[in-house]
Amino acid sequence: MRAWLFDNTTTDQREPHDSGVPQTADDLAAIGVLYWHLSDENALDRLEEIAKERNYKNRDQIVVSKEAMGDIYETKVKSFFEEHLHEDEEIRFILDGTGFFDVRDKQDRWIRIQIYKGDLLVLPAGIYHRFTTDASNYIKATRLFKEEPKWTPINRPTADENSFRVDYLRTLRVR
Q: Which residues are recorded as binding Fe(2+) (predicted)?
């Protein structure tokens, strides 16, 4: 995982957009984003431990690529890149490929997180975020869920008064 402040240029969303201002795992933790790198021979065992500790009961796999998604690929990637939140944690374990999650920091700036094979990322419920593949146009991930999968994005600004958003902002004041 690498992270940096997003440079806000309007070129292709799949480019790095690296502002040169790095962000650390501690910076991410300060906004409730959790990160682990699970790359050794015990990665799946460690994933199971974390899933049990955090009560993730369900999972599936997703492949985001032109080959796997066909004609809907571009439309799907554009929808993933709309600024939104979920009312559940968003948990992704990267099995192959690379991509970017952008999350809002306390000053409402984008932090771009580049994720790689072996990265486990947990976004808290209520955080504004977006996702895109990188220039490789390929990522394969396990998605974990506490209950039945819900993929309902609530786009900004509609979600500004959402109770999960309000609760998330309240937790930021405590950190």
A: 84, 86, 90, 129
Cα–Cα separations (whole angstroms), residue 80 to 11, 27, 42, 52:
17, 23, 31, 28
**Has 129 been labeled as part of a binding site?**
yes
CA distance 97 to 134: 9
Judge whether 37 is annotated as a binding position: no
- Residues spanned by the domain of 117: 2-174
User: Phi/psi at 160 (nearest 5 deg)?
Assistant: -55, -35
Report yes or no: 115 and 100 within 8 Å, Cβ to Cβ. Answer: yes
Residue ranges of the chain with pLDDT lower than 70?
174-175
> Tell me, what's the pLDDT at 8?
83
Q: Do residues 33 and 115 touch, judged by C-beta distance below 8 A?
A: no
Q: Is the peptide bond before 157 cis (omega within 30 degrees of 0)?
A: yes
Tally of domains in the chain: 1
CA pair distance 166, 113, nearest whole angstrom? 24
Q: In this predicted structure, what is the pLDDT of residue 126?
A: 97
121, 115 contact by CB (below 8 A): yes
Question: What's 20's domain CATH number?
Answer: 2.60.120.10
Contact present, 129 and 81 (Cβ < 8 Å): no
